[in-house]
């Protein structure tokens, strides 16, 4: 996805408003673009606060900044700059991260970024895209860069086998009929989710746009049981689902990355397994959830 | 266009009194008043009619708590109605204890949390350069204690390193009333000059010296003016 992003973002430099702001991460990949557009491909060095502050200043002059780094450095380290230098100034930027929750698992805790979407979700009116395949990236990037508002694109080395470019709104990929439990899979966890419910009477819908969440689609599809499968902090979208279904009885299972610092290395696949987000782990959680019968009132 | 009319001190005093409304001002209000006067009287090319002109000069108040003099100057120059000064900070007021650019005409950034203005100023200067606008200057006002925030040093180092490539239009102003808890041995200016900025350290009460310093950039490098005012002022 990173290569696709670099190619797509470079092409968007044809618009004189587009300005890419980097903090060393991916600077080499953008070097050819920087040679052609030295005024609009800016590498500030390893300075994430400045990276976002510069983006805010650029946006104040009418430029459209694309800001890029590792998820924890982009969102967690520079959170106050995101809040104040963008939102509070009333200007927008497109933030694009790599690394996701545990793409570089062997790098350890410092490079794990599972809290990013939850942090962005403390702010208002952001669009968040979590593509599940590299071919979803160009269209999503183009759409948000052509807009005015703030957006966060969360890229990952994890991927589904195929792309669904038009899955901002919930897209049903497996229909178990009216009233069936609804599983909503976000981004690259779709394939694991589909495998997990093989043979179970569960409807599966996919989205790569958790914000704004397709609450109308959710209300149309949801029965009494909803299962969220998100590739970042567990429960990040629980409040949205809860609010959307507040006026009807429902049970919600919110699966995602746990809060615990596992202090283990290994691979992304290992971390998926440890967080119960591989097909076997998801099937176990979903099975227990559906087997549990609510106590009679 | 450059405004050359000096703000009448009596008028300014009356406007400040109107904001103060019997309260006690902190030292920061008076420490920044002279530099604000020189900026708005003699340096900044901005008027109430040009607050959205892309070729205007930008003034970014990074030490956002220094608002009283700022609001008084904005009122004196016609950016905001004088009546707005009454009930400053009240429930219906547009004038908070820190300025909000979405609420106050002529205010370029919302500030308050220290250490945000210089990064925004660097980005503003880079945006103007990308648009080929070489005329407007970007002024960012900070305090010496604000320099404690590490984000400033990210901006100082980067702006100095890029120098000729684009930040020649940037001027930082440090109002130095020796309020940084651990001080700046060797002077605040040295933090800038070691990174390639030009610098002038002047008496923060001397309007002529301030004017010379504020217009003393060489158009090749970013410039800093350290305006020294007495401690505890």
UniProtKB/TrEMBL annotation, chain A:
It comes from the Bacteria. Coiled coil: none annotated. Residues 1-163 form the Transketolase-like pyrimidine-binding domain. Pfam families: Transket_pyr (PF02779). InterPro entries: PDH/Transketolase (IPR051157), THDP-binding (IPR029061), Transketo_C/PFOR_II (IPR009014), Transketolase-like_Pyr-bd (IPR005475). PANTHER family: PYRUVATE DEHYDROGENASE E1 COMPONENT. It comes from Micromonospora sicca. GO terms for molecular function: magnesium ion binding. This is Transketolase.
Automatic annotation (TrEMBL), chain B:
Residues 31-224 form the Transketolase N-terminal domain. One of its GO terms (molecular function) is magnesium ion binding. Signal peptide: none annotated. Pfam families: Transketolase_N (PF00456). InterPro entries: THDP-binding, Transketolase_N. This is Transketolase.
């Amino acid at each position: 996805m990173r290569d696709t992003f670099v190619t797509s973002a470079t092409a968007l430099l044809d618009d004189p408003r587009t300005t890419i702001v980097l903090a060393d991460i991916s600077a080499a990949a953008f070097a050819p673009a920087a040679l052609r557009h030295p005024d609009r491909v800016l590498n500030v060095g390893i300075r994430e606060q400045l990276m976002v502050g510069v983006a805010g200043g650029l946006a104040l002059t009418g430029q459209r900044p694309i800001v890029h780094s590792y998820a924890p450095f982009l969102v967690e380290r520079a959170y106050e700059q995101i809040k104040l230098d963008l939102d509070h100034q009333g200007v927008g930027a497109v933030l694009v991260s790599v690394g996701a929750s545990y793409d570089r698992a062997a790098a350890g805790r410092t490079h794990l970024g599972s809290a990013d979407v939850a942090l962005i979700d403390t702010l208002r009116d952001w669009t968040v895209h979590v593509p599940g395949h590299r071919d979803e990236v160009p269209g999503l990037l183009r759409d948000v860069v052509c807009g005015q508002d703030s957006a966060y694109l969360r890229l990952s080395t994890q991927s589904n086998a195929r792309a669904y470019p038009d899955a901002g709104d919930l897209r049903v990929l497996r229909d178990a009929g009216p009233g069936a439990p609804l599983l909503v899979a976000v981004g690259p966890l779709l394939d694991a989710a589909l495998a997990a419910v093989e043979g179970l009477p569960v409807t599966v819908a996919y989205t790569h746009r958790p914000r704004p969440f397709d609450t109308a689609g959710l209300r149309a599809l949801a029965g009494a049981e909803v299962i969220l499968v998100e590739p970042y902090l567990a429960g990040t979208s629980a409040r949205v689902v809860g609010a959307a279904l507040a006026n009807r009885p429902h049970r919600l299972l919110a699966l995602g990355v746990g809060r615990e610092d596992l202090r283990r290395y290994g691979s992304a696949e290992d971390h998926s397994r440890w967080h119960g987000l591989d097909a076997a782990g998801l099937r176990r959680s979903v099975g227990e959830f559906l087997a549990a019968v609510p106590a009679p009132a | 266009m450059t405004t050359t009319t000096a703000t009448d001190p009596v008028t300014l005093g009356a406007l400040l009194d109107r904001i103060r409304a019997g309260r006690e001002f902190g030292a920061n209000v008076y420490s920044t008043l002279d530099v604000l006067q020189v900026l708005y009287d003699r340096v900044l090319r901005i008027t109430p009619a040009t607050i959205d002109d892309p070729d205007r000069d930008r003034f970014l108040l990074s030490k956002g708590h220094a608002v009283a003099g700022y609001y008084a100057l904005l009122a004196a120059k016609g950016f905001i109605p004088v009546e707005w000064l009454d009930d400053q900070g009240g429930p219906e007021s547009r004038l908070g204890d820190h300025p909000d650019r979405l609420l106050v005409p002529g205010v370029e950034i919302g500030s308050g949390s220290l250490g945000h203005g210089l990064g925004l100023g660097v980005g503003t200067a880079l945006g103007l350069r990308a648009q080929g606008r070489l005329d407007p200057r970007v002024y960012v006002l900070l305090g010496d204690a604000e320099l404690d925030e590490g984000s400033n040093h990210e901006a100082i180092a980067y702006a100095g390193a890029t120098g000729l490539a684009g930040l020649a239009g940037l001027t930082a102003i440090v109002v130095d009333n020796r309020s940084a808890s651990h001080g700046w041995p060797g002077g605040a200016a040295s933090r800038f000059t070691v990174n390639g900025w030009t610098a002038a350290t002047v008496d923060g009460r001397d309007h002529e010296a301030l004017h010379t310093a504020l217009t003393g950039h060489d158009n090749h490098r970013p410039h800093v003016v350290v305006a020294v005012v007495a401690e505890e002022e």
